[in-house]
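Researcher: Go.
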Amino acid sequence: MIDKTPWKKGIRQSLPERTSVAGLLAMLLIGMFLPGMALASAGTLQDFTGHSWAIVCVVIFVLAYALVIGEEALHLRKSKPVIVAAGIIWAIVAVIYSQSGDNHTAEQAIRHNLLEFAELFLFLLAAMTYINTMEERGIFDALRIWLVTRGFSLKSIFWMTGVLAFFISPVADNLTTALLMATVAMAVGGTNTKFVLLACINIVVAANAGGAFSPFGDITTLMVWQKGIVQFQEFFVLFIPSLVNWLVPAVIISFAISKDKPTAIDAEIELKHGAWFVVGLFILTITMAVSSHNFLHMPPVLGMMTGLGLLKFFGYYLKKREQRLHANHEVGESGFGEHQLDLEETETNPEKAQAGSAEHYNIFRSLERAEWDTLMFFYGIILCVGGLGTLGYLALVSEMMYGGLGATNANIIVGVLSAIVDNIPVMFAVLSMMPDMSQGQWLLVTLTAGVGGSMLSIGSAAGVAVMGQARGIYTFFGHMRWTWAIALGYAASIWVHFLVNGDLF
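Model: Structure:
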């Protein structure tokens, strides 16, 4: 059984407390669909950047994003301001275009945005449901307990959590991976706040770096893959630059970690029935998503939703099995089976299933636990940025950055900006601009946007999530004291990319 003392809280127990984090995870997946939005009707878009009402749209977006940034202090869900801003911006866009005699472009643009959001929404919903199901079956708790009960030294835990974060995030995502490994660091470190801080910094950097060389590891890579600019297998040339991005700061920070061994911890966990089968289904689902895109030339969401359907069938099997065991238990105690829950009733009535037995698995509970605030936040961001693009602002920024500074400088700046603003709207803007760049430059901006956020704790979903997980220990200023080391890794990864992938430029 799981020991549920406070320090042993698993990822599943912490999910309800990290709405802001999940919101950022969802942001990542948005990017993959945003890129095409503003380009759908590129041939008919007009330049309204100097229009007074277009400037009002920019102000509205800035104010909405300011409320998003202040979510923790205001206790205002991030989706609320951007959804309202999106509605106002598109109303203004429609009026501006209609005044110019064009009553169709705005409608076509927003319909394309909505289609992109629908693909993103379903893709993320399937991925989140799988992650929630694996948590419910105890997969992540099992990994956490295994690490904290092996008696490793603090330095060993520092390196092991970093390695696992780097290699798990390409498959799961950098957010969930960072939360899982941060839980391990907190469990092992206990009152050693210095170790917990340094381990969390290492985990955030490793999770972001690991996500940069896989289409499934980060929103930016998902965006680029979904757009078709870089094929699935081509992302893996970023493995060495991503590894360098993590290793440089990790080596530097490791000198501040002692070799002491933490107090021994005893804990046990029992995986629920079908846990590893769910992992296998998730791998199959990812394979189907990749195959849909690469071989069938269909949106990846087709494979993801098919995989979700398979998970629902397996959920039906789990429900039937658990109800049978429950009924046998009732018969064993009373000799009668009248307490057996009706399968079809509980399939459509989660409340009744929960009332009948707390152990019954129900796929709809995993769906309910999806980060809905994040999904709605994506809707708002996609439409806000798409609206500004329809007014011509993205083309203006593209000319300023890529026309004036050159692709390399612009792509490096994109990474720095992603640490301050967020890589989702930044990468979406780049994809909407569609500057004329070589394959090496597209991979460069994918790398910089993915790992640049590591320079500040607020620069990535992983960082924001861990700040909530290790509140008061892993802080903005605690992370910032090591920004110089992370920046060295950022610069080194760019240099290595030019070195090992020079033939792509």
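Model: The chain has two domains: 6-269+370-504, 285-360.
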